[in-house]
Amino acid sequence: MLLIAQSDFQATGNFKKDLQSKTTLESKNEIALASNYYEILIASQKLSPAQLMQIGLNYLKIEKYSEAIEVFKTIINKYYLKFPICRYYLAEAYFRKGDLSLSKSEFKTFADNYLFSSDSFKIVLNESLSRCDSMLKFARVQKPKSIQLLSSTAEMFSPSMDNKGCFYYVQSTKKWASETKNDVIEKRKIVTIHSDSSILPTYINSENTLQGDVFVSEDGNILIFSRKTNGVNSSASQVLYARKIDGIWERPVVFEYPINVEGYNSLYGSIVKINQDYYLYYSSNKPDGKGGLDIYFAELNSDFKVVKDSILPNEINSTFDEITPFYNKQNATIYFSTNNARNNFGGFDIFSYKREVNESIVNLNMPFNSGADDFFYRTVDREGFLESNRETPTSSGDHKVYKFEVEKNDMSITVSSNYKTQENYKLSVDENAVRIYYSDTSQLHSIAIEQNKKYRIKVKQDNYIDIDTSINIGNLEEGQKLMINLFMEPIINIEGKVYFVDYDSSAPKVKQCVVELIDISNNKERVIYTTTINKQNRKYSFQLPTDKQVKLKVRADAYNTYDTVFMLQSFKSPGGFINNIQLHQIQKNNILFLDSLFVLDDEIRTYNDFDETIKPIASSFNKNENIKAELTIQLITTDNAKNDFPVPSSLEDIINKYFIKDININKQIIKVKSTSRNQDWYKLYLTYK
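Above: the chain's sequence. Below: its structure in token form.
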């Protein structure tokens, strides 16, 4: 059989011969070949207005929109009164090229000046204007994006990539036959780039029945593709899968009924794993569809048997062809292409649909769509691909792969505290109980997330309360980010000792006491911690967040209860608060522990508010003349040579102001080897009988 290349159909420069060749090819519906003669015939300026109009319409048909625009402009400038309909076709050419503003302007000019003889045509024009408005509005709210040609040399079909960077596509070689288009020789094979096995087994790439579609799963272990097979009554396309086990591709398996139905085409499959389940999306012209090719999805078990097979909703499927479905679980959106003329630039356009929120389908607009055929929209991680013949927009034009950057949904996590800069904390994020992120630094954390998932976030750091929280991710727009600000509450370490002091030999010996930490933040006393202290282990330790107002209470049989109130907010850093309690071994109702004081530059400092603790108690004794009391001032010093001490003037002022006149004052010296402060410490005790 003699093969003739497309280049054999060339203009000769002879007007009559070229016109005859054009007319013959057009009569056989070989418009793409006939277009080889259009440029020279137009340049001759010998064509009639009707012939120019036909060429403009043919340019539209083979999706050469720039050429069509020039032809329609020429007719409008020279023959507008004879062919006013040209302005409508000019507007349509602008629309399919993606020049929406110019398209709307031409549609409006045509509507304002054309005398309609048919109400149905007026409806079509109004729909075209509405279509321009809706797509212009969508284009304004979308972020500007760009796509770039992946390869300018090879014709490529069905781009697909796994998360390891292995790229798969179908490569096709074609030659024109001498007789009819049915004689075109085609050979397709699945090709991989940067794969651990660049040559796929022959049982995957066998024969010439391979269709122009292939899909690789995210983990790179499943291939989905289609072949044309001969059935009992006719040939049809079937969807197959092959699995990679231990790095080796197994033989392809045909999906069972109802995915593949004898006598009907099923193809353009893609697979997605959600949690532990697999879902297959594919196109088919099965008899239960809406018409043409419709999109279905099938739930599969671990053996790839069909559990459930369903057609996608009416918002997606129509009487036209819906093909190349792809479900992006990262934003819970299905992408597909359709040649439904409503809201299309021309040919097949790529649309999106969010099933969870029951939206209508949305045209992805420029630059993803063009006036040519655009399909096989797919993404993996932060890369996306699509296939288009926009550079040579004819039914037999070269198909090329275009690449674009994907904006993923990220969750940005910051960890902070009002008290200090956070450092060296440990942050982890789990998805469905699986660890997906871990860090022990204080940097800004950006984590890729998926929609409709639940994430558990945990933060740990010494002297801070652990954070353990969960967040449910709903529906997000592409590129939408979640900002999670976590606040770590410092923990105050309340530590101290209880001293058992033999002060009165007639009192019973104390063996143990109970220390309670009581929350009084909400004007109600609630015991938070309780511990028992004995002489062998005198220490107590509690940890609390700083938003508490607490009271420390010490109780012992036959002894006075000691309590003190403090606000944890007053401490500016976590840890380090120590409160020592000296419990005196004297009989009940015979002692009041007033406060712990120390003297700095003759100025009294105290942990507790003096006016709230010492003053009321001392004043009560002043009012009761029958009480016999003795005030003990105890000095804790590191000066071993000191046998007596003068009462500091500030302490004398307190005694004279608040205590009973002529009260007996007992001075005691306690010598210690070392102290955390260089100053002398004083403690006041008031005993009464």
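The chain has five domains: 8-141, 147-405, 410-464+482-487, 489-588, 590-689.
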